[in-house]
């Protein structure tokens, strides 16, 4: 039980460190504050699991050469990232990140730049960070550690359930909106041509579609109601994952983004 509690504590701790790294990096590159991560809380679980994989697989080789640890860590963490990307796509029918615009990448799921960053982090974890974390964890009394882990488990479980439900609801919303768009495209050829012409052009793509179809009789009150729902989780996820791309509902996603942008402008003008 003590070992399990320690592993879970490390998972949460490194997930938090990963969240700090990702949020800082994305906030700097996007010039705005970004709460990066699948969960609403300050955690990026993929970093936590990545750190555990490194610790469990390479911990006994921490005294090996830096190059060896770098290469091994890069391979292990990139494999984890690739599998995570594939699994999330299968579970939620969407791509959450895409490195296709990078020069050296594999199916858009991993890239060379990420491998270099993860390899470097692996060395830092094994050589510098984890010895300190391990010593700190061992100083925490067992009962206190169990209480901390129990509370963290409840919080993470609640966050996970809430987030997954939000993603499922968003997918259902996108499916309904896409179905309405498809019906309109079948009957109104100029709308179909307009959407086809703008496909792949992210700038004002959704806004143009929205302007063309909002007055159409097939754009039902139900669809309008769906787009009018201002859900925090949807805004957060789309902001955290700017390259989020549903497999079958790309036009609907652009329309949803356009509607959220309208809400944002209205809020600013008040």
Give a quick summary of the entry.
The protein is built from 10 helices and 4 strands. It has 270 residues and is mainly alpha-helical. Strands 1-4 form a two-stranded antiparallel ribbon. It has a two-stranded antiparallel sheet with strand order 2-3.
DSSP summary: helix tally: 10
The span between the termini is: 54 Å
How do the strands line up in the largest sheet?
1-4
* Helical residue percent band: over 70%
Secondary structure class reads mainly alpha
Mean pLDDT: 85
Rounded to the nearest angstrom, the radius of gyration is: 22 Å
Number of DSSP strand runs: 4
Percentage of β-strand residues: under 5%
Largest sheet: 2 strands, antiparallel
Unreliably modeled segments: none
Oligomer: single chain
H and E order: HHHEEEHHHHHHEH
Q: What is the 3D form? A: elongated
Chart the SSEs and their pairings.
Blueprint: H1 2-30, H2 45-58, H3 66-92, E1 94-95, E2 105-106, E3 110-111, H4 112-139, H5 142-187, H6 189-198, H7 205-213, H8 221-228, H9 232-240, E4 245-246, H10 250-269
Antiparallel strand pairs: 1-4, 2-3
Helix pairs in contact: 1-2, 1-5, 2-3, 2-4, 3-4, 5-6, 5-10, 6-7, 7-10
